[in-house]
Specification:
By secondary structure, the protein is α+β, with helices and mostly antiparallel strands. It contains 3 helices and 28 strands.
C-alpha cells in the first residue's frame, strides 16, 4: 500500500519552513515565514495553538525528546523555548548575530545545537538556558546542524558547499565532506549514528559513512532538495523538493520507492514521526500535511527492537557498529531464521570481498589506461617531430 494523505492543516499565513512531531504523535509543530509557530493536535476537532513571540520569520522548530518543550529559531536572530500549552510561554536565547536556520535537541534533551547565517554553530544547555560554545569554521551561512544519536558528534551543513563533522567534547572539526556541487540545505544522522545524509541545491541526496568518511549512496534528483528525514528503522529516507514532491528512498535497495504530490509549489520540510508510521510535510503553499507511511510493519518492527537493545556495559546508550550492518542488510518480508542469517552474512561477506576485488581491478585498469595515454602522447610527439624534420629536408633539397 502506498503512503497516503491523512490530515491537512491550514492556518499559516505564509510559507511553512519546518515541521516536527511530538514523541507521542499527539501534536505536530510547524514554523512559518508568518513569524508564528503552530502546534496542531492530531485528534480531530481539537484546536490548534498559534504561538506569537518571534519578531520575524520562524525558520525551524523541534520538540524536545520528552515533548515538554518546543525550540524555534528565527530570522529575528533569536532562539525560543516554548511550553506547548494554552499559555504558550517562551524564553529567549540570544547569541547569534544573524538568522537562526536550525535548532536540534540532543537525545537526552540536555543540550541544544543551533545553526545560523552568522556562519556559526552554537551549543546551549537547555535547563540553565546558557550559551556554551561556538563552532566556527564554516565560511558561509550554516543551514542545518544535528547531534548524533549518542550526542558525541555534531554534523553541520552550509552554503560553503561543505558538510562538517565535529567532536562535541574537543570542539574540533573531525572531517569536511566537500562532494556537494551546491549549497547544502539539510543534513541528519542515520538512527544508528554510523552515517549521515545531506541534501543540496545540486539536486542530490548523499549518504556518507562517518566511520570511514566515505560516500555510500548518491541519489540524483531533478530539483533542489530542501529537507530530509530518516525513518526510525533506518531503512528509508523521505525528502522534500522544490518540484513540490516528497520522495521516499529505499536505502536497502538504493532506489526511489515513491514520489508523492500534494503541495502546490516547493515542499520545504519533511519529518517522520518518532514511531515512523506517519510523516509530515510543509510547503511554500502555507500548508502542513500529514501522511500515513503504510510500509509493511514487518519491514521495520524487528529493527526498532534490535536498535533499542544497544546499551553498553556501563549503561550509557551507544549504537553498536554491527547494528547499522544489521539494518542495512535486513531483507524484507522474510522471517528471521538464524541459520539463514548465518548463510546470508557469509554470502554478503563474500559479495563484499568480490566487490572490493572488482574495485581493485578497476583501479589497476584505470592506471594502465593512463600509462597507455601517456605513451600515446609521447609517440604522437615523436611522430610530429619526424614529420617536421622530413618537411625540412624536403624544403632544403628543393632550395
Amino acid at each position: 500500500e502506498d503512503p497516503s494523505l491523512e490530515r491537512h492543516f491550514k492556518g499559516h499565513r505564509d510559507a511553512v519552513t519546518s515541521v516536527d512531531f511530538s514523541l507521542n504523535k499527539k501534536q505536530l509543530a510547524s514554523g512559518s515565514m508568518d513569524s508564528c509557530l503552530m502546534i496542531w493536535s492530531m485528534k480531530p476537532q481539537m484546536r490548534a495553538y498559534r504561538f506569537v513571540g518571534h519578531k520575524d520569520a520562524v525558520m525551524c522548530v523541534q520538540f524536545s525528546p520528552s515533548g515538554h518543550l518546543v525550540a524555534s529559531g528565527s530570522r529575528d536572530k533569536t532562539v525560543r523555548l516554548w511550553v506547548p500549552s494554552v499559555k504558550g510561554e517562551s524564553t529567549v536565547f540570544k547569541a547569534h548575530t544573524a538568522t537562526v536556520r536550525s535548532v536540534h535537541f540532543s537525545s537526552d534533551g540536555q543540550s541544544l545545537v543551533t545553526a545560523s547565517d552568522d556562519k556559526t554553530v552554537k551549543v546551549w544547555t537547555v535547563h540553565r538556558q546558557k550559551f556554551l560554545f561556538s563552532l566556527s569554521q564554516h565560511i558561509n551561512w550554516v543551514r542545518c546542524a544535528r547531534f548524533s544519536p549518542d550526542g558525541r558528534l555534531i554534523v553541520s551543513a552550509s552554503d560553503d558547499k561543505t558538510v562538517k563533522l565535529w567532536d562535541k567534547t574537543s570542539r574540533e572539526c573531525i572531517h569536511s565532506f566537500c562532494e556537494h556541487g551546491g549549497f547544502v540545505n539539510h543534513v541528519d544522522f542515520h538512527p544508528s549514528g554510523t552515517c549521515i545524509a545531506a541534501a543540496g541545491t545540486d539536486n542530490t541526496v548523499k549518504v556518507w559513512d562517518v566511520r570511514m568518511n566515505r560516500l555510500l549512496q548518491h541519489y540524483q534528483g531533478n530539483a533542489v532538495v530542501n529537507s530530509l528525514s530518516f525513518h526510525p528503522s533506518g531503512n528509508y529516507l523521505v525528502t522534500a523538493s522544490n518540484d513540490s514532491t516528497l520522495k521516499i528512498l529505499d536505502l536497502l535497495e538504493g532506489r526511489l520507492l515513491y514520489t508523492l504530490h500534494g503541495h502546490q509549489g516547493p515542499a520545504t520540510s519533511v519529518a517522520f514521526s518518532r514511531a515512523g508510521d506517519l510523516f509530515a510535510s510543509g510547503g511554500s503553499d502555507e500548508q502542513v500535511m500529514v501522511w500515513k507511511t503504510n510500509f509493511d510493519a514487518a519491514d521495520y518492527g524487528d529493527v526498532l527492537k534490535t536498535q533499542k537493545s544497544g546499551t553498553s556495559v556501563d549503561g550509557t546508550h551507544h549504537t553498536l557498529q554491527s547494528e547499522m550492518d544489521c539494518v542495512i542488510h535486513l531483507k524484507k518480508k522474510k522471517p528471521q531464521d538464524p541459520g539463514r542469517n548465518q548463510e546470508q552474512q557469509e554470502e554478503e561477506t563474500s559479495l563484499a570481498n568480490t566487490l572490493e576485488h572488482i574495485m581493485g581491478q578497476l583501479d589497476v585498469l584505470t592506471q594502465t589506461v593512463s600509462i597507455l595515454e601517456q605513451r600515446l602522447t609521447l609517440t604522437e610527439d615523436k611522430l610530429k617531430e619526424c614529420l617536421e624534420n622530413q618537411q625540412k629536408i624536403i624544403q632544403n633539397k628543393m632550395s
